[in-house]
Amino acid sequence: MKHRWASVFWLGFFSLGYLVTFVHGFPGIRYYPASHAWGLGGAYAGPSMGWYGRVAVGCVAGLVGWIIGAILDKTRGTESRPPWAVHVTAWILLLAAAAYATHHEWVKWM
Amino acid sequence: MEPVVYIWGERLAQVNVIVHLLTGLVLIGAVTHHLWLVVRGRGITHAKAIRRFSFWAAVSYLTCFAWGCFIYPAYRYYVRFLVQDERAPWATGLFEIKEHWLALGLALLPFYLVTSRSVKDLDKRERWFHYAAVVAMAVVVWYSFVLGAVVVDLRGELYR
Q1: ipTM value of the model?
Q2: What is the pTM of this model?
């Protein structure tokens, strides 16, 4: 089976990258639709879309994970399987990112 | 009267929403069929069907996600900023949760696809993670589909 390590590492690194964007002070990559401008966080009265930035950070982090995993796939062979701990860590990061994102929006809007 | 601001993609927003809906329908069909096979205990034996469902799920997920990104600026300004944030903040909150879950679905998608395409090669431990991925995809897609429908339905209420 191809991409065993790469897919698990993408999962873990993407989730970690997404989670890190919620850390206080992390620069938000934003798009301001009403003024057609891109910016880095800061106070702004109009609507901005930090979500684009979070997805971008997640994808870049995921790509790094994929590359590391692909190297491991190549060096260890296609029959090599990631250990239990790697799977569990990746899933914990995914659940943590989902839980924190949900908490973040819940507190903000509900 | 000419509008004061033009939001990127607003001219095609209605067409894009329909494309978003149609790809969403394909997606919900694919992940639900896949989940149903797993629930019936045929998640390993029906490998060919699993490969087909996961392939179409991945294609429609990426297409639906891309179209969601196209319509998001128009939604963000005309729906959320001008109306929804003030009059139905609960809808904004639930919708933003959907956006986060769908983004994290991108994290899960390669693992879901890779394990689905060779389910017979999975060992016992990997099968459980694969089943978890199938369930998680179904939960994310169903939640998003229902929430999207709720927000579209709200339009009549909010603009009244």
Answers
A1: 0.91
A2: 0.92
Sort out which chain A residues have CB atoms less than 8 A from B92's CB and list them.
Answer: 109
Question: In angstroms, what separates the C-alpha of B97 from chain A's closest C-alpha?
Answer: 5
Q: How far apart are CA B39 and CA B33, in angstroms?
A: 10
Which chain B residues are within 8 Å of A6, Cβ to Cβ?
110, 114
Question: What's the CA gap between B115 and B121, in Å, rounded?
Answer: 8
Give the model confidence (pLDDT) of A97-109 as tens digits: 999 999 999 999 8
Q: Cβ–Cβ of B99/A14 closer than 8 Å?
A: no
CA–CA gap between residue A3 and residue B82 (Å, rounded): 45
